[in-house]
Every structure is written in C-alpha cells, then in structure tokens.
Design goal:
mainly alpha; 67% helix
C-alpha cells in the first residue's frame, strides 16, 4: 500500500502472547547473566521514586506523585541526549572534530569512573572535600586570659 507521497506505509504487526513470553524470557536470561545491574537499576528507580514522593509530600503536592513517577523513567535518556546536543552546539563552534572530543570524554569516563558516572562523581567530590579539610589552616590566634 502506498501513501500520497508515493512511499510505502509501514506495516504494524500484531503482538501475540508468544512474543510477550519471548521478551520476558530474554529479560530473565539477561537478569540471570548480570543480576547486580538489574538490582542496582531497580534500587535506583525505587530510590528515585521515594525521593520524588517525599519531596511532593513535603510540599503538599501529593496529587503530582503519579504523573511524576510515571515520567521519571523517561528522564535519563532525555538528559543524556540533551547533553550530547549541548556539547555539539557549544564545542563545534570552537573545535571542528567535536565527535572526537565527545568520544574522548566518553572514554575518560569509562576509564576513570568504571563504577559509573554518579558513583564516580561522588567519589571525586568526597576526595576533593577530604583534601580541602586536610589543608593547612592558619593557627588560631592565642589570646591571653586576663586575671
């Protein structure tokens, strides 16, 4: 079947019960192969949902809990795509090969933060604060007590 523009319209297939069972089976095999990742992402989503619910409860906006929780899973990909677009627009004005820079940033994150971006950033933040706390501070001014 062709459309007005002369292109072939896409065909929409029906989803059968066997397709759903196959997808669930593949998901179970993936989870059995790497259970820690599945548990970690599940805990992150659950923790994020709890944080959203607590914030909404504190501000008296509980009626927004369901829409925000439903959209919470969609947030990560959009943030990542937005970051790539921003890097492209800002860096491409200064560097012709911005793709190389984006790849270098990705490789640096994978090498320097093998545990992931959020735990790696938290580790860097803690180490910076430790260095700042151990920095040499000027001695306190001694005061003589009057008798």
């Amino acid at each position: 079947m062709t459309s007005v523009s002369g292109k072939v319209d896409p065909v929409v297939r029906r989803i059968r019960t066997a397709d759903i069972a196959e997808a669930l089976g593949q998901g179970l095999r993936d989870f059995q192969a790497m259970p820690l990742y599945g548990l970690l992402f599940g805990a992150l989503y659950a923790g994020g949902g709890v944080v959203i619910l607590l914030c909404l409860t504190a501000f008296g906006l509980v009626y927004l809990a369901y829409p925000l929780a439903a959209g919470f899973a969609l947030l990560g990909p959009f943030v990542g795509a937005g970051l790539v677009v921003v890097v492209k627009n800002v860096v491409s004005a200064f560097i012709e090969r911005w793709n190389f820079l984006l790849g270098a940033i990705f490789v640096a994150i994978v090498i320097l933060m093998p545990e992931g971006l959020v735990p790696g950033t938290a580790r860097l933040w803690r180490s910076l604060w430790r260095k700042r706390a151990h920095a040499v501070t000027p001695p306190a001014a001694k005061t003589e007590a009057s008798s």
